[in-house]
Each structure stands twice: as structure tokens, then as C-alpha cells.
Amino acid sequence: MSNTSYYFILWILCIVPLIHSLTPKSPIQCNKTICTLENSYGTWNDRKTCYALNVTYPTTEQQLRLAVSHVVQNNLKAKIVTKFSHTIPTLSCPLQNNHAFFISTEKYDSGIEIDAENLAVTVDSGVKLRELIDEVEKNGFSLVNAPYWEGVTIGGVISTGAHGSSWWGKGGAFHEQVLEISVVVPASKSEGYAKILRLDSHHPLFNAAKVSLGVLGAISKVKLSLEHRFKRSITFNFTDDNDIENVYMDHANKYEFADITWYPSRHTAVYRYDFRAPLNASGDGVFDFIGFQANSILVPESVRGAGNSKGKCLTASASLAFKKLTANGLKNNGQIFTGYPVIGYQGKMQTSGSCLYSSRIDTSCAWDPRIKGLFFYESSAIFPASKFGDFIKDVKNLRDINPQNFCGIDNYNGILIRYIKASEAYLGPSEDSIVIDFNYYRANDQFTPRLNQDVWEELEQMAFFKYGAKPHWAKNRNLAFLNVRQKYPKFNAFIDAKNQMDPQNVFSGDWSDEILYGKELVKFDGCALEGMCICSEDRHCSPQKGYLCTHGLVYKEARVCRLLSTSVNTDSL
To answer: What span is annotated as the signal peptide, if there is one (predicted)?
Structure first.
């Protein structure tokens, strides 16, 4: 480790004990004439303002039904909005036609009913994931799988296909734990303009509602399966990345909650050895993932400010060393990391998000838009398991051209590799799958090119077009959703269910219509810089700054914006 990396780690260690956080602000802000909706990052993919005439906050299922009834009776459009608004695309944005309404589930969050005999729990859709986990654990039960990030609501999780990681049992997708769903949908005048559908696994609409994208109606209640409370044992093995393409399947088959984090520029893979431990095993560990801890505002600023490849590689090395030193946030007995394995109850090991709860003004979640923190894209691709090894080989070939080009994503969290099983949900994967996530720099100005922009564009296009990966519904830039209809065998069945449940398109939005009905991306000057299109002409990039449209280096069919004019001085990140 270099001296600079050593002192960078010491600096972080000095800051971490002082950390408390700015709690996230409400995603909905209203004045006397209009309400606007932001996501938790402060900016949508298209950078446009999402607005509606008003917002209502139902607290019961009946109030939710009345809210939908009001919308239908008055020929309005509506979208359901959660407390966190943690999606990247504009799934929760209604049609922008000056006749739209927000219905927030922020205050519809009190109902948690445990059925101990049948190992099930029924919750209001606005219940926060952490509150649900704590309640079931307190009563001697566990949710088997959940997303890694706890800043979500139950309705939001199942609307978008959010997941953890597992090929065991029902798999890593949260919607596979769903037993019943109640949905408020538009109805006739004689039915009061809105009605509640109770869907169980035998209902023909159930598999549409399991991953609904918020376009079928307003989710009211969700019934989930439980298991008796259990413990997990986690060890992270930081090692070389030589064999990922050969061992990724065996790794998932051997460990129930396996994942892999790959840092390509560092030639490092971190294998998660994660399995159930006996309930009487010693340990009260916590997984407080570093990326979701409250950060001093100086830390995300320093990551974002490392402006060239050399600077980014320096911070990537320091960040990786710090993660290894602190076990990525694992804490024995809830305090500090003292050694592997870390054993703790499922409720404390599956999901985290401690930056949500503290209150000091000098710290925040790293991506909070109120500070000059992390502002990034997040690409998430779902691969058929059989194709994933070849994708890894292609990425290694791209990396080996110049490993420094990959330091940008290694500054964040490298490439996270997780596992989900085949699903009966119409918009879930039809076969056992591998999911990757990677974050990378987004410029404050939409027409500013980024350092090594072509690398991330080639990686993105390689995943979604060469290997046919499916996009995660709540993440990704717009281009990832091109031709998404062809990737789901039961996509037309989902459209049929939508037409049956919401024939008036009350819950439609501009963006959801684009992906559901295959609207082509509109091209304009600079559109490829933010993934709003794939470049076919130089003007779609930034020719005035030397970025021209050209082919990929490994995936030749890719069309990317690359810095080709060395006479142009650019400090793009």
C-alpha cells in the first residue's frame, strides 16, 4: 500500500466515529399551485421536473380507495409515491398533462399483522422495510431475503423487482416471498369508481401484480411468507479475480446468500461466504454496509473530486484497502469488526441503511443532493446464468486494454454480482439469473462528457444488447430499456393484465408508456452523453469537446462517445 493510501485510510478512520447524518428530505414538495417529485438523488434520468396538481396522504386502505376513486371520478391521472422515492427512472411520475395527482403511501404504514401459525405477515404497502424486519424478528421470525438497501417500502420493493441474492429456496427476489397482494384499481360508477382486488397465487392476475411497475393500480396490502428466526455467518474473502467466470455458479450453489464484488482495475474479487448458522451460535453481529453509512460530507466530495485516471486509481486503491480493513461494514456484536466469521441474526445481516437515521448537519447519505456528494448513474443488468461467464471474459478483455480506465467504478463499489431465481412473475426473469450493479460518475451538467465515457457505454451496451441482459426496472439509463418487450416471454400477458386492471390508463406515465409500448428514443445533440440515446452521429456526443461517435473496442457493434481529438483540452470526469 502506498503512503498516500495509508494516510487516506487514517483520515477516513478519524472521520467515521464522528458520523451522523442529514435525514433525507421528503421527495414531494408543494407550493400553492403545484407539487413536484424528486427521487432520492435529486435528479431524474431526463433531468426534467416531475409535477402534479396535488398530493394526498391516505392512512388506511379505505382512504386509499377513496383517493383512487377521486382521481377516476375527475378524469385525472395518478401515481403512487413512497416515502423514499428511490427509483432512478421516472416510474413514479404521472403523465405530464396538468391533470395528474400524487397519492403518497408515506402515512399508510401502520399495519403489520403476523400470522404465526401459517408463517406469514400482512403489511400496509407504505410500511418501511426496516420496520417490518424489526417487527417480525421481535416476534421470532425472519424474512428470508430482502434488498441490501433498507430505504424502501414494501409496495415499492415488489413494484420494481428489488432483490437480495440467493439461488436457494425461492431465490433472492423479494417478490418471490409474496403470497397475496391487494390492489386498488379503477372501477365503474356503480362500484364507487374504485375497488379492491385481493389476489392470491391462484388468481390469474397475481403474476402480473408481483412486479407491477406501479401501472396496474395502487398496491394496498401485501402478504409475505416468513421463516422462524435464524442466524447467518458471513466471511468476505478478498482475493484475485482470475477465476470468476469459472466459479460464479459453484459459489452460488455452495452458499445460500452468496455474492461477489469485483474490482476490475484492482484485479480483485471479494467472495461473500454467507450461510445460516445455528440459532445458539455465539454472536450478535451487524452488517452496516460502508456505502450506506452516514458519511462526512468531505468523503463523497473527495471521491468525486479525484479528477483524472491516476487520481481515481489512487482513491480506488485506498477505498478497497479500507473496505478490507473494516470488512465492508460487518461488526462483531454490533460495535466494530474484530475478525471473521461475523455471526448475527438475519434481521441485522441482510439489509442496511444507517445513513437514514442520524441527524447532524455535517453528514449525510453519500448521494444526498443537498451536498456536493456522489452524483452517479447506476446500471443493473440481469443475465441468463449460462451467458454470464462469457460476459466476464469480455469485460476482462476490455479492462486489459487499460486497467486504469476501470478505476472510476472501483471508486464506488466495483461490479456487484448477485443471484436471483427464475420467476413466474410476468416481468421477472424466466430463468435462473445473475444480476450485476455498477455505479459511475454523472456530470453536474448534462452536456459535459465524462472521463472514460466510452468504456461505460461499451460495458452497458455489451450487457444489454450483445448478451441480452434485462434491465432492473428501478435503475439504469433510458437506453437500457430499448426493446425490453422482446426480453420477457410473458410481456404481452402483462399488457393484457394492465388493460384489464386499468383500462383508462389512470396509472400510466410518460416514461412507463415509452417502455411498455416501445416508443423510440428521440435523438438530439448530446443525447448519448446521458444515455438518452445511442450515438449514430458525432453530434450525439460532444464534438466541440473532442468526443466523437465511434465503435467499441471489444464489442465492435457498440456505438460510443470517445475522446478522439487530443487537441481539445477537457477536464471531464
So the answer is: 1-21
